[in-house]
Write a structure and sequence with these properties.
Layout (H helix, E strand, L loop, with lengths): L5 E4 L3 H13 L5 E4 L2 H9 L6 E4 L8 H11 L4 E6 L4 H9 L4 E4 L4 H52 L1
Parallel strand pairs: 1-2, 1-3, 3-4, 4-5
Helix pairs in contact: 2-3
């Protein structure tokens, strides 16, 4: 899951580069960088479906919640982590209300916190995939057992009448 597509949406070019570099160094080679929410949304409209989007709240043209709403319509399984300097409780609550996974205030350990959240998101997604596969195998197994039981009943039933 380390090859999962991650978007970083941050209009501060220095911080954007810092975040991308951090995740590349921590084993995530598939990180795409955007300096505006508009560019991020356009890429999703073009068919990409990132697993996770790490984004700032305040950006030119469109704020983080607007990006979240638009991307969720196109890619509902994409998870969002806000990484922002905005300490407003109202903004944090609204971001969560619209489907953000977490809201992290930029500080000296913010990237470590974001990395922990990414690990949790990817682990949950991997468990969901495994559960889906197990359910498919269970259904196939039950169908096979039902066929065997029905075949046995028919075979036994015909032997009684012969």
């Amino acid at each position: 899951m380390k090859d999962s597509l991650i978007y970083v949406v941050e209009d501060n070019k220095v911080y954007n580069k810092l975040v991308v570099g951090y995740f590349n160094k921590n084993g995530f080679p598939n990180v795409k960088s955007f300096f505006s929410g508009k560019d991020c949304v356009r890429e999703v409209k073009n068919g990409e479906q990132p697993e996770i989007i790490i984004q700032d709240y305040y950006m030119d043209e469109m704020n983080g919640i607007e990006v979240l709403k638009r991307v969720k319509k196109l890619s509902p399984k994409t998870e969002f982590i806000f990484l922002t300097g905005n300490e407003s409780t109202e903004v944090a609550v609204n971001s969560m209300k619209y489907g953000a996974y977490d809201y992290i205030i930029k500080d000296e350990v913010a990237l470590d916190k974001a990395n922990d959240k990414i690990q949790k998101i990817l682990n949950v997604k991997q468990l969901k995939r495994k559960n889906k596969t197990i359910k498919k195998y269970m259904i196939v197994t039950v169908v096979i057992l039902v066929i065997i039981v029905l075949f046995s009943i028919l075979l036994y039933g015909f032997n009684i009448f012969n």
